[in-house]
């Protein structure tokens, strides 16, 4: 008979929230054409597959003479005749169990294994039916185990909150428009992926109503229509963007370090930035 593992909600949140957040943040290119960047999938799909294997593939099968434990790729077989005692525990030690509502099985010469069948009573009754000599103490949960359980739950909750806070913070800064400062012969781009560009390193500046089609995100972030970082553009190749694709126009800056495309929250502000940048560049450009 097969008994699936009980699954604690907090453990599921601890496992899945960071992974789902990572997939969203690394794969979604929120460009106007709604394309996806598959790079993140190559990283996260194997991780998701492995976690899913553990999450849905943990269980315990009792045959006529064996207890077969399965946890993803992990397999363990215990002869029923070797089982000496079964007792309840909340020991958070790593084991083939997805809940802290656990059973510790003692067998052989001082060997133990911890499992967490969803139907604990049915599991214990079946073991007793096949091995009447097995001792059972299903109510023995000592204070130290309870303390370990509480600590584990608190740590899990803290990690989950920190992960969610980190994702929220990253999303906030990713969706925040860059700011620009022209002074001292430089253009300073502040914010995520920001940099300082010497005006003397700029070969040309232009303003356009459209940006080329985005083919791939190579090292950047994108939430909604806000794109920051390095992207591959059709007909151009790699460029560094600081743009809101829904708010043209866009300023194209050909610098020694590569093409930069920027804009601001308002079209009128982008026009003003372009004029100021063009004037400052002409004054600071290195004579040919």
From TrEMBL:
Keywords: Membrane, Transmembrane, Transmembrane helix
Taxonomic superkingdom: Bacteria
Pfam families reported in the protein's UniProt record: bPH_4 (PF06713)
Domain spans labelled Uncharacterized protein YyaB-like PH: 58-131
GO biological process: bacteriocin immunity
Transmembrane region(s): 9-29, 41-60, 151-173
Protein name, per record: Uncharacterized protein YyaB-like PH domain-containing protein
């Amino acid at each position: 008979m097969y008994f699936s593992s009980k699954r604690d909600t907090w453990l599921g949140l601890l496992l899945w929230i960071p992974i789902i957040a990572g997939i969203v943040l690394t794969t979604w290119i929120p460009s106007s054409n709604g394309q996806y960047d598959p790079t993140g999938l190559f990283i996260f799909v194997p991780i998701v597959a492995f976690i899913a294997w553990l999450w849905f593939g943990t269980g315990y099968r009792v045959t006529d003479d064996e207890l077969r434990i399965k946890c993803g790729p992990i397999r363990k077989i215990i002869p029923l005749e070797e089982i000496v005692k079964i007792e309840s525990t909340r020991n958070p030690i790593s084991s083939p169990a997805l809940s802290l509502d656990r059973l510790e099985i003692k067998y052989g010469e001082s060997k133990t294994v911890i499992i967490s069948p969803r139907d604990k009573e049915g599991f214990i009754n079946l073991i007793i039916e096949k091995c009447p000599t097995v001792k059972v103490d299903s109510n023995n949960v000592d204070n130290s185990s309870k303390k370990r359980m509480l600590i584990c739950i608190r740590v899990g909750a803290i990690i989950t909150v920190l992960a969610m806070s980190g994702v929220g913070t990253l999303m906030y800064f990713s969706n925040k428009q860059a700011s620009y400062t022209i002074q001292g012969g430089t253009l300073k781009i502040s914010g995520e992926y920001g940099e300082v560009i010497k005006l003397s390193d700029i070969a040309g500046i232009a303003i356009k109503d459209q940006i080329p089609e985005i083919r791939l995100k190579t090292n950047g972030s994108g939430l909604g229509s806000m794109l920051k970082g390095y992207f591959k553009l059709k007909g151009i190749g790699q460029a560094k963007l600081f743009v809101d694709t829904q708010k043209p126009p866009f300023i194209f800056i050909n610098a020694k370090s590569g093409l930069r495309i920027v804009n601001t929250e308002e079209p009128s502000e982008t026009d003003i930035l372009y004029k100021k940048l063009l004037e400052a560049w002409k004054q600071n450009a290195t004579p040919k």
